[in-house]
Amino acid sequence: MNVQVFIPCFVDQLYPDTAFNMVKVLEKAGCKVSYNTNQTCCGQPAFNAGFWEESKSVCQKFLKDFNGTDYIVSPSASCVGFVRNYYSKLFDNSSLHHEVQDTGKRIFELSEFLINVLKVNDFGASLNGKATYHDSCAGLRECRIKAEPRQLLSKVKGLQLTEMNDVETCCGFGGTFAVKFEAISIGMGEQKVENALATGADYLISTDLSCLMHLQGYINHKGYALRTMHLADVLASGWS
What we know:
This protein is an alpha/beta fold.
């Protein structure tokens, strides 16, 4: 199966190892993976900040870069959710309407692609310790992802997964929200980290590095031993 990978801006700049690990996991699942070096951003930051016309230009480039019939897989439910749910608003009643619909059907977050398309849940990964999982707002509410990452984590040898309290509550990042409402954002991050620590977890895992970046900042500030990990990095542990 041919798969195009979309690597979000912040993953490319700050967490490139996660992108490489996603490729390793997809290849282990039997996919032929390709990366279009012309790709840039999905357009979400500008859209969320209210710059819809500027966002539209970036989104048009995304549609051009990922034109074709291949599946598109990304290590970010946030970006996938934006393409699926908001491109139709930007290009409503336009000549790109059908192209937008087609792209929305071909783009997947990593965990849902592995479980729902490839039907693979075990990659021979191993990671010793206790973990808890954070449902990102985008993953849960925009991509409808809940069981998929947990199915994958349940197959990781040595990993004990425990649910935290208020697991579906926002971590407080929200992109520009963390900048505009810093105090509220920090308070929400604190609540999420404290709930994770209460499970006795060594690892806090999610599908979205934007959430994990926010939470790791609070963890570092407090000097906690808790470590955040993206799902792709967990699935590549112990064999890659």
